Amino acid sequence: VSIEGSALLPAGQFAADRTPAFLPFSPDPFALSQLPVHPGGTTKGASSFRITRGIEAVGGSLSVYSTREKMTYCVECLRDHVDTVMEYLLNVTTAPEFRPWEVTDLQPQLKVDKAIAFQSPQVGVLENLHAAAYKTALANPLYCPDYRIGKITSEQLHHFVQNNFTSARMALVGIGVKHSDLKQVAEQFLNIRSGAGTSSAKAAYRGGEIREQSGHSLVHAAVVTEGAAVGSAEANAFSVLQHVLGAGPLIKRGSNVTSKLYQGIAKATTQPFDASAFNVNYSDSGLFGFYAVSQAAHAGEVIRAAMNQLKAAAQGGVTEEDVTKAKNQLKAAYLMSVETAQGLLNEIGSEALLSGTHTAPAVVAQKIDSVTSADVVNAAKKFVSGKKSMAASGDLGNTPFLDEL
């Protein structure tokens, strides 16, 4: 029997930018936040060699990933070795030393990570989409800017951790481990750095457009407006609308040809394309719209056809059958996502970090069932009437500007 445990905290690129920089050289907080994602450095309780070999010796694993709102340190092991891996988890989250030579050696890896990620056009489009949509906070990139690589110091990282890795900003979550054991660990170690940490400002949606011209034959484009925050009444309505329009293939190697977006665009072009509704929810904001990929010469007709499908939904072109089908798809997607230990751990941790509670899957399903056709139409109306944001990359000669849509 294996257990999984994780320590979650708000990601620095989101939280730190919501406060003034206290250091005289005003470092970029989102530049600093990428380095803690690499947990291979020495800590006060264990060297990087000991952490690596210690986890390896018990057949465990330690992984770290970061989103725009949280950073998750996750360990997995057999139940007999909980104490061992928890020691290492707590070391990398509460006691990093950031030795100068280790920080220097690690920074070139940031270039590698970024280069690999940006081989996918989707990464660049989504980065630009958030930069265009928001003024601060959520506008910050997930990847360290090139001008900051090689200039991040150990002192900056210590300052960042001291102000962001505090007990009030962390959640310790476990699956397959006793609650009493986790509570004991939290009370013993996670109070080392007590306090609320940095204060958080609200994400400010502004709307805008970023176009990245390249010679690529495919155009990737996303058009969104401000959606709904996590836990709000509108969030489920936007999620149902996403599945009404088409949220991508529902089975392995499946297609999206039955979705409203796909069928609507297929009437406007005979060229290959792909399109799906885009919906993301954050703690105090969200984005909703669509993402389309098309041949450069036909980008305009694909994007306009996708817009027309959303306008049709806002005008009531959504049937009860469409809504029922979409709700079933949404419930299935959610319930299957929490069937795995990793998915459940992430779900519990994200909710605990945001609200300090956890909603049972059955309750989530009931809330989805309560969404009405009117709610879905109102969500579509909000997209149509809302201030838009757009990001596009590729050969953009035939890609319309935002004010032309």
Largest sheet: 5 strands, mixed
In terms of DSSP E residues, the strand content is 15-25%
CATH superfamily of the largest domain: Metalloenzyme, LuxS/M16 peptidase-like
> Order of strands in the sheet with the most strands?
5-9-6-8-7
Topology, number of strands: 9
Span between termini:
55 Å
Shape: globular
Q: Count of helical segments? A: 15
Q: What is the H-and-E element order? A: EHHHEEHHHHEHEEHHEEHHHHHE
Helix fraction bin: 40-55%
Please give the oligomerization state of what you see: single chain
Q: Given the helix and strand composition, which structural class is it? A: alpha+beta
> For the CA atoms, what is the radius of gyration?
22 Å
> Could you name the CATH class of the largest domain?
Alpha Beta
Number of domain units: 2
Task: Provide the CATH topology of the largest domain.
Answer: Cytochrome Bc1 Complex, Chain A, domain 1
Architecture overview:
This protein folds into two domains: 2-189, Cytochrome Bc1 Complex, Chain A, domain 1; 208-404, 2-Layer Sandwich (Cytochrome Bc1 Complex, Chain A, domain 1), CATH 3.30.830. It is 43% helix and 17% strand. The N and C termini lie far apart (55 Å). Helix 12 packs antiparallel against helix 14 (361-369). The chain has helices at 12-15, 29-33, 48-57, 82-94, 100-117, 121-133, 154-164, 179-189, 233-245, 260-266, 299-314, 320-337, 341-355, 361-369, 373-385, and strands spanning 2-9, 61-66, 71-78, 171-175, 208-213, 218-226, 273-281, 286-295, 388-394.
